[in-house]
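User: Okay, second chain of the day. Same drill as before: sequence in, structure tokens out.
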Amino acid sequence: MKKYKQFVLISLILLSPSIALAQFDGVNGLIRGVGGIIESLTLLASGLALLYFFFGLAKFISKSGDEKSHSEGKNIMQWGLLALFVMMSVWGIIAFFQRDLGLPVTVPNNTANQEPIVITPEMMNAFRDPAFR
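Assistant: Same drill. Structure tokens below.
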């Protein structure tokens, strides 16, 4: 089973469109490609944690008569919530560092030979301005 998981993970990475279509243009392109893969894996992990929580919820509700399955569903829900909490906390801490400490946020850019878009804290503050709303 371990070799199967490794095979699937390596296949997904190697068959992702940015790698398969050779869209890298030097080191910057490689960094953008790896960033895109990390972003995709982060979204996948968040979705899986949410599904895991709902699986535990379904087990908790459907097996309420059986004490063992009931407690197992409760345990699954707790681990799912913990995973979601940790992921969202890390996301919030990173957003804090980027926004409030003035670190630039670079947006991945898929077009070759263009400068990446840099979102500065001043740009983010413009969205908080009451006149903007």
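Residues 53 and 80 are 4 Å apart (CA to CA).

User: Thanks, on to the next one.
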